[in-house]
TrEMBL record, chain A:
Enzyme Commission designation: 1.2.1.10
CDD domains attached to this UniProt entry: ALDH_C
Molecular function in Gene Ontology: acetaldehyde dehydrogenase (acetylating) activity
Source organism of the structure: Spongiibacter thalassae
The name this protein goes by in its record: Acetaldehyde dehydrogenase
Domain Semialdehyde dehydrogenase NAD-binding intervals: 6-121
UniProtKB/TrEMBL annotation, chain B:
Keyword entries, A-Z: Aromatic hydrocarbons catabolism, Lyase, Manganese, Metal-binding
Reactions this protein catalyses: (S)-4-hydroxy-2-oxopentanoate = acetaldehyde + pyruvate
Domain of life from the UniProt record: Bacteria
Active-site residues, record numbering mapped to chain: 20
Pfam families reported in the protein's UniProt record: DmpG_comm (PF07836), HMGL-like (PF00682)
Residues binding Mn(2+): 17, 199, 201
The protein, known as: 4-hydroxy-2-oxovalerate aldolase
Family: Belongs to the 4-hydroxy-2-oxovalerate aldolase family.
PANTHER family assigned: 2-ISOPROPYLMALATE SYNTHASE 1, CHLOROPLASTIC-RELATED (PTHR10277:SF9), HOMOCITRATE SYNTHASE-RELATED (PTHR10277)
Annotated Pyruvate carboxyltransferase domain residues: 8-260
Site (Transition state stabilizer): 16
Catalytic activity, EC: 4.1.3.39
Source species of the chain: Spongiibacter thalassae
Amino acid sequence: MAEKIRAAIIGPGNIGTDLLMKAARSALIEPIWMVGVDPDSPGLARASEMGLKVTAEGVAGMLPEMRADGVQICFDATSAYVHAENSRMVNGEGALMIDLTPAAIGPYCVPPVNQRQVLSAPCRNVNMVTCGGQATIPMVAAVSRVQSVSYGEIVATVSSRSVGPGTRKNIDEFTRTTAGAVESIGGARQGKAIIVINPAEPPLIMRDTIHCLTDEEPDQQAIRESVEAMVAEVQRYVPGYRLKNGPVFDGNRVSLFMEVEGLGDFLPRYAGNLDIMTAAALRTAEMFAEEIQAGRYSPAAD
Amino acid sequence: MNLSGKKVVLHDMCLRDGMHAKRHQITLEQMVDIATGLDEAGMPLIEVTHGDGLGGSSVNYGFPAHTDEEYLKAVIGAVKNAKISALLLPGIGTVDHLKMAADLGVNTIRVATHCTEADVSEQHIGMASEMGLDTVGFLMMTHMIEPEEIVVQARLMESYGANCIYCTDSAGYLLPDQVQSRIELLRRELKPETEIGFHAHHNLSLGVMNSLVAIEAGAGRIDGSVAGLGAGAGNTPLEVLVAVLDRMGADHGIDLYRIMDVAEERVTPIMDSPIRIDRDSLTLGYAGVYSSFLLFAKRAQQKYGVSSRDILVELGRRRTVGGQEDMIEDLALDMAREQGLI
């Protein structure tokens, strides 16, 4: 068996720690660095206990050693504000950057939809869109690959506890980025995204509704099959991804009602919105790892 | 109760909240007709947008007959003295919508969040306030939390730049003493220059009464809608409130007979069905459910054969919040399956 591809996680918060727990199980990725900025961070302590090298000096703290340590993939789970600089630094050391922040300086990746395209145009920074995008764009694509979709709309309802201060400070970024990716990756001519935050206790599991308006009358059988196949694809990395109801056909409207339950690695199970981000990021890394192992891709090559 | 000489700013909702009851299909001509009538009656502030605010146009909430831009342009161009406001729900509308509304000349931006989620409004309130607009923080579904918790959220909005904070009874659930405790505490805890507002739904027939209580407790702005045209059993019927305020000697600045005429001749004739407390709107007020869910639940009953009252009660039990309209069809499908209807 080929050697695992070594990786670093930047940001030892909830997302970074959940990602670490998933990556630790991966057959293709070996997390070896956790990068933080706070020496008292519990996430750094946890990573250290798990045997990772850690630094509280930010990416600069890892930089001198990362090439020697063979790090080829980095995940950024910090914030959009520092992402560009983090990405520039790790790219300079020959590593690919997978961006979980909303910075979106690289192409979007929604693994079951456009992984082939992302791999076919070699790049050194890929962006994971948004949690709502990861949960819904596969479904928009499942409809648009059957027939043309004039309008795709997604409504993501998430528990208040699972929405961090970064998202809250710039919630427009979520609606704008998600709507854009519903178009560019989902294949709808016009995209719309809505996010609703619900504070109920116990917290609700992430829910997503996807409405597509098709140009022609929907081919019900073909859409059902396409949706089923796409749900199975997403379930390969998010087992708790479920089609609760639908597809509902009403004229040219196709509606799907989803629930996304997380694995509960570090984040609670209701936070499917966060789980699907970390799972999709790892999935993306694994795809690249296979390419690196096969000698088809090198993050170091320009 | 003594409201003699109290100054109250009334704010009409029939061209925004009323859009829910009209499935967002009010025509430009109807908007202009009603707005000019209100203007002539002395209404100081009129809200105009999709029922779910700027950017509400969607499958989920309904596509309107015209864009927000078209509605705002038409109304702003037609009124002489009245100022126009626009609603914005972060998560649905964005600062781009806000800029558009400001460019068209709205006077007031009201940024609405669920009562526990004020921190999603920072960028919108901040921008509106920087633009020098009358900036309102609009806390919805305030029956779901205690007065002390409302104050915490109100302070956030105040810190972002809101010059007025609304306590909104989106479900028409609050009882008079609950309105009193909420408004009194807000009045006591917020900056003295911050205005307090109250927005009611008439689902328990308490719109007028609760508005009076709110004024007495320190609210200076009161929402209502002419002929009650609004979600659920409608908002506080403004012409009724004006008549009562008149008799109590409050200072509201509205011509009673003119606003009565607008209600009778311009608003009532455009209603798709009478705005009244029917079984379903009463359920909203009784079970604490967001008022604009009403027509969605009725439609789900028609389509799936599940009782709309049962749907609404279940939505209340699950503590759904404003904006979760997509839950209704999903839930109706679950219930229909359980009942063997599909």
